[in-house]
C-alpha cells in the first residue's frame, strides 16, 4: 500500500499538506515542510484559543478556581515583596553602623589624639570622629543640664571616645572588627551599635525561611488545584478523547487542549494575584510614608517590581502547565476506546 | 492488504473470542464478515485497528506487522483506516460538520481544504443540508450515515464497517451498500461486518463466516 516513510509508521492516504505544484525535489520538500509547520502553528493557536473559550463558557466555575489559585499566589507574592522591602530598609541602615571606642581613662589627651590619628590611616575605616574628654563633658553638661553639678567635680570622669564608621558592612566582619579594636591596649571598650540590626537580620532570616516554606506549600496547592480541575475536565470530555483516539489522535494531540487550559489558569490567576498584590502595596503606601516621617526618614515602598512580577507570572504559568501535565499523565492513558 | 495468520483473541475474562483465524484480503477487495451475535465480528475488526491486541498470531495491515507496532504508532495506523462503528461513536456536543471534521483536524489538514472534504463526504451520504445540526437531532439511520461520512472523509485505503446498516430500512441499506461499492471501485479495500444475510447475498461478494470465534467458510 503506502510508501513506507519512517520505520513503522503508516502514512495516511491523503497528504495532509498542500499538493505539490512545482517540480519535485528540494523545492517541493520545502513547500511541504512549510505547509506542515503552518498547519501545526495554526493548530496550536486554535487549541490555545478554544481552551480559553472553554474556560469562559463556565464563568462561575472558572472564576472560583481562579480565585483559589490567585489567593494561593497572592499570599507568598506579597510576603516575598515585603521581605524585599525589609531587606532594602535593613541594608540602608547597615551603612550607618558605627563602632564607638571608649578609650582607657588613664590615657592622656595627647595619647588619645595620637591614637585617633593612627586610626585615620587605616583603610578599613571610612570616617572618624574624636570626642575628647573635655568635649564629652561639655556635651554631657549641655544635654543633661547638670552643668552645675559637673562644675563641682574636680576630675573629668568621662573617657575619650572615638566614633568610627567602618567600611565593612556584613555583620560578621563588623563583629571581628569590633573584637580587634577591643584588643587594642588603648581601648577600654568597643561597642558596635548594631545589636538590634543583628536581631533584625536573624528575624528576617527566619521570616524568609518561613516565606519560602509557605511559598512552596502554596505552590503545591496551585499545582494540585489545577491538577484536580484538569482531571475533572478530562472526565467530562471522555467521549471526545475516545473518539479522537479512534480516528487517529496521538497522545500529544489529546493532551494539548488540557495543557493549554492549565496554561490559561496559571496566566489568569497570576494576573489576578498581581493586581491584588499591587493593590495591597498601594494601600500600605500612605501609612508607611507617615511611619517613615516619624523616623525623619523617607522610604519609598516597592511593589513586586519587574523581577518580582516576572517571577510571579513564570511560576504561575509553569505550575498551571505542570499541574495539567500531571493530571493528563495520570488519567489520559486510562481512557482507551473499548 | 489485510492478512490474518493463526490469530486468536482471548479476553481477560478467559473468553476465546477468536480461535486460529486465517485469511487474506487483497488490496482493493470487498468482503463481508458474518456470523451470529457474539461470533467475534467486532473483535476481528478491533484487532485490525489495534483497539485490541491478538493473544496469538500475526496480523498484517498494508506493509505493517501489527505486532511490531508500539503504542505510539497506533494513531498513524488508525489514520490509514476508516471505521464505521457499531455504535456510531459520534460526539453530541458539536455539529454534524464538526464531527466529520475531526479526523481531518487530527491529521492536520488545512481548514479550507478540510471543509471542502467534509462537504464532499456529507454530499456522498446525502446529508449535506444537515451539516449545522447536532447529531442528537438526527434519526439513528442518519446518525449512521454521519458515521460513514466520518469514516471516508480522509479517503482511507481501508474501510471497515461494523453493522453499518443495523438501523436502516432495506432501501437505505441498499443505498449504503452502493456507497461502499463505490468506494471499493476507486480502490478502497472494504470489510463489512453484518448479519443481514439477505443483503450480503444480494451483493455477490466474498463472505467470511465466523462461528464462535472460528472462521467457517471463506468464499
Ligand atoms: N472487552 C471484552 N471483554 C470480554 N469479552 C468480550 C469483550 N468484547 C467482546 N467480548 C466477548 O467476545 C465475544 C465476541 O464479541 P464480539 O463483540 O466480537 O461479537 P460480534 O460478533 O461483534 O457480536 P454482535 O453481532 O452482537 O455485535 C462475545 O462473546 C463477547 O462477549
Ligand atoms: Mg459486534
From TrEMBL, chain A:
Protein's UniProt keywords contain Secreted: no
Pfam family for this entry, one: FtsX_ECD
Listed GO CC annotations: cell division site; plasma membrane
Biased composition (Basic and acidic residues): 21-38
InterPro entries, sorted: ABC3_permease_C, FtsX, FtsX_ECD, FtsX_proteobact-type
Subunit text: Forms a membrane-associated complex with FtsE.
Protein name: Cell division protein FtsX
Organism expressing this protein natively: Neptunomonas marina
From TrEMBL, chain B:
Gene3D superfamilies, per the entry: P-loop containing nucleotide triphosphate hydrolases
UniProt keyword list: ATP-binding, Cell cycle, Cell division, Cell membrane, Membrane, Nucleotide-binding
Compartments it resides in: Cell inner membrane; Cell membrane
Chief place of localization: membrane
InterPro entries for this protein: AAA+_ATPase, ABC_transporter-like_ATP-bd, ABC_transporter-like_CS, ABC_transpr_LolD-like, Cell_div_FtsE, P-loop_NTPase
PROSITE patterns xrefs: ABC_TRANSPORTER_1, ABC_TRANSPORTER_2
GO BP annotations, alphabetical order: cell division
Protein family membership: Belongs to the ABC transporter superfamily.
Function description: Part of the ABC transporter FtsEX involved in cellular division. Important for assembly or stability of the septal ring.
NCBIfam families the UniProt entry points to: FtsE
Protein known as: Cell division ATP-binding protein FtsE
Organism: Neptunomonas marina
Classification lineage: Bacteria, Pseudomonadati, Pseudomonadota, Gammaproteobacteria, Oceanospirillales
Designated gene of the protein: ftsE
